[in-house]
User: Fold these one by one.
Assistant:
Number 1:
Amino acid sequence: MFTRRAALVGAAALASAPLVIRAAGAEEAPAQAAAAAPADLSSLPRVKHKLVVPPFAHAHEQVATGSPVINEFEMRIVEKEVQLDEDAWMQAMTFDGSIPGPLMIVHEGDYVELTLVNPAENTMPHNIDFHAATGALGGGGLTLINPGEQVVLRFKATRAGTFVYHCAPGGPMIPWHVVSGMAGCIMVLPREGLTDAQGKPVRYDRLYYIGESDHYVPKDADGTYRRYADPSEGYEDMVAVMDTLTPSHIVFNGAVGALTGDKAMKANVGERVLFIHSQPNRDSRPHLIGGHGDLVWETGKFHNPPQRDLETWFIRGGSAGAALYEFLQPGVYAYVNHNLIEAVHKGATAHVLVEGAWNNDLMEQLVAPTSVAG
């Protein structure tokens, strides 16, 4: 039997994999940096942000109001059990306690200064790899920290768009940490804000961040999902499921139904909503049933012209995209991964509750359902 003690011993062995990165990456990078003059950013103003739980985003300006700033963020790494569905739990590893991790928003040319904290009660080393950053494994080579440590990383946001961030502690730990919940998104807005394909300014009234994630929960012989005391205890069982490339769950924002019912996203007729959608591991096909992508930055990069009027768009694994839609009719809209098996059977479904007046010019029921003779 795979005991808790054996699991912790195994975790210690696994930790040697990320520590190789600390030796070959995090120690080499400072040695290289020592030969360069430190950047003097003392004249730049600082803006401290309080991160919020997705699908919501922290307060921000859509258009930069001045010269570049240093944006200060703090995230704590939280290892905890989460409930994926009525009958399924997972020992999760998270940024700030949520799946996905919080959305961070800055402007192109700004600096991101992140204090990453790995509390002593955690059991694993962790780090963060920003797809938006340049150098040192996206920051992963400079941020590897053991339980009881914290680190501060600063990078310049040189490219506008939506970008995934995730934990990447080395070797087999990388996919395990990612599918255990350690991924999120940063949005780097152009300083002038968003524009359409003709360069005209575009604004949004609401923003929602949908983090899609795939999970691999082992089952007993009778089909019951297994439950573990801590992340390391279920490692070998979970990797066996991961290696089948068949997720047990594919969900939005950390659980089946996390964005449905009384937790549905909300909007009003006439409002423009920007949907940010990330998937750190697998391809996805977002679709808004009853609506469209008025403007879609499918690859999430805002200096590329957006596509118009899409029915379904494509999010590559390891990336994030953005879609803007102005709601024209009230009702409950389903926002789904249009691999409908994944949406219906695995959990990749969200709802948007839209209030306002119905427009019969756009859609009208001309004859209500009646019985058919014969």
Note: Residues 38 and 263 are 46 Å apart (CA to CA).
Number 2:
Amino acid sequence: MTTNSLSSTAFSLPAETPASQGFSMPAEFAPHKACWMLWPQRPDTWRYGAKPAQQAFVDVASAIADSETVFVGVNDEQYENARNQLPESVRVVELSNNDAWMRDVGPTFLTSPDGHLAMVDWQFNAWGGLEGGLYFPWDKDRRIRSKIAEILGIPRFEVPVVLEGGAIHVDGEGTLITTRECLLNPNRNPGLDQAGMEQVLREYLGVTKVIWLPRGCYRDETDGHVDNLCCFVAPGEVALTWCDDENDPQHAISRQALELLENSTDARGRSLKVHKFTQPGPLHIAEEEASGIDRLNSSYPRQPGDRMAASYVNFYIGNSVVVMPLLDPAHDDDARKRLQALFPDRRVIGVPAREILLGGGNIHCITQQQPSV
């Protein structure tokens, strides 16, 4: 199996795109109808049969359920276990999957001014296919979006472009932020250049301005997803992962991103206000944490001492809550206070999230908001 391949010259957009029909992607801080998640069980991703990770997912789902309806998709063999662990208010649905990263395998929801909901069904190749991807196969993950479209009874716009939800953030007013490291990576869409990708983003997400950051967080195994580095917290305002240590590779990445953001304007011509969030740690995989993971040739290896791409920017914005990862006692309280200042009308809930980080992502990566219409 190979990655999807297309070129910006060969790829032609259909006559009817989401943007041509008035659809666009709302900001995450806009009102939600629900949140979608998946249930972890993969033993080569999650240690000790995913039991520690399952508790972390329960904590995240419970926190978000105070704010909006939460759906958790589960493989059949884990249905009863998930149902018994999750609160009654969380809706558990059978939804076959290869792994639990709903942000990347779930739909990108769209809304229209006349009150309709739709979704974009991107291609998915497990973050790089056979050229750096994290596991094989990913066939069940590829069907999740179409199944959710069936459950909700909404239109589905399928596009032959590989794109994960964690690779993009929007302000809901025409601006999208992403990284070249990910969206222009040849293991996603070989031959699709920046101009071609921007055309896709405009027509399928309804944006008019794309801000390209060079790289994502250091050692991010997703090839630099923007949701671990930078996100919109309000129109004209972003949160940015920060590092003061000049000897840390993250320092140069964050500094480069800051300079670009401070010299950028959004789709409405506003200068961007940047809020810095000092990174946790640095955090590394401990010996006992690595020893609990199954070693398979078809999955990404995690070794003792490996640095993890830990970030406080990887949080979820709900209707009445912001759910943030607790990762480092030295920095957790400061990150919580900064988030509370940015979201004074929402309750900031910290969830111990190291088990999610050990799997390669964090709270934003395991959630996907369904906007209200």
Note: Residues 23-371 form a domain with the L-arginine/glycine Amidinotransferase; Chain A fold (CATH 3.75.10.10).
Number 3:
Amino acid sequence: MSDASINTQASTNEAGFGDYFALLKPRVMSLVVFTAAVGLLAAPGYVHPFVAFCAILFIAVGGGASGALNMWWDADIDHVMKRTQNRPIPSGKVEPGEAMAIGVALSGFSVVMLGLATNFVAAGLLAFTIFFYVVIYTMWLKRWTPQNIVIGGAAGAFPPMIGWAAVTGGVSVESVLMFTLIFMWTPPHFWALCLFMKSDYKDAGVPMLHVTHGRRSTRNHILVYTLLLAIIAVGMAFTGVGGPIYLATSLVLNALFIIGAVAIWRRSEEASEADGFKREKSFFGLSLLYLFLHFGAILAESALAPYGLGGW
């Protein structure tokens, strides 16, 4: 092999800024930022815009730190799964030790800075969120139980509570309900993805529900969790973060979500295979819109409240 080809290969595998940024799971981080911002803006009380910006920034950094530590620990299974083979560590662009160092450094930085910028209740919640996602979910539950995504989903549900605590210095019924909305949304959202990811998790030895209990059981679970989610989501309309805008939005979205879940429940594997899991993919896409619009409605109620147009 010539020197030129060696140099070309080395430059191809050399990590760039984009590779290090990818360690932070930016798509997941965007959800963290949005829900945390809604929790912060919907909370009663005033916070200076610069402090609010810093709070969201440090929450985002903490979420990214969790992502980096998750990729470090899961590098072995990421290498096996088609969906994750191009991540920075399995692709060989970032060393596992680098990812761990970045994750640990950003975790400490984000928690300390959030505490200094806002209060240490918010910082404590952020620290617990990172610990829960990395240790409880990634290191323990994910490879141990088919209920991994049910319990582990709590990690992704904390950001609005953190945003709320950054303003109020505490936890309330409203922030717990926002947490619960995301917590109950996560299983049907993720299980729908599992249905059309087919053998990825089985190949990696991860005991997801469809691997351990079968795809029919997964479809049953999606329907049950969707029905429970609808009760919680619509019920939130009658709390301090709800109102007519939220109620109308939630009624429409939950009707569509239940219709989609019933369609998935009624489907046979043969029918799903025949059309390339069209309904499952449609339900997964709707699930992304579902969460965004629910929190968007909460934000709208909060923004219009000072003008007497939001809330009850």
Note: Residues 1-12 have pLDDT under 50 and may be disordered.
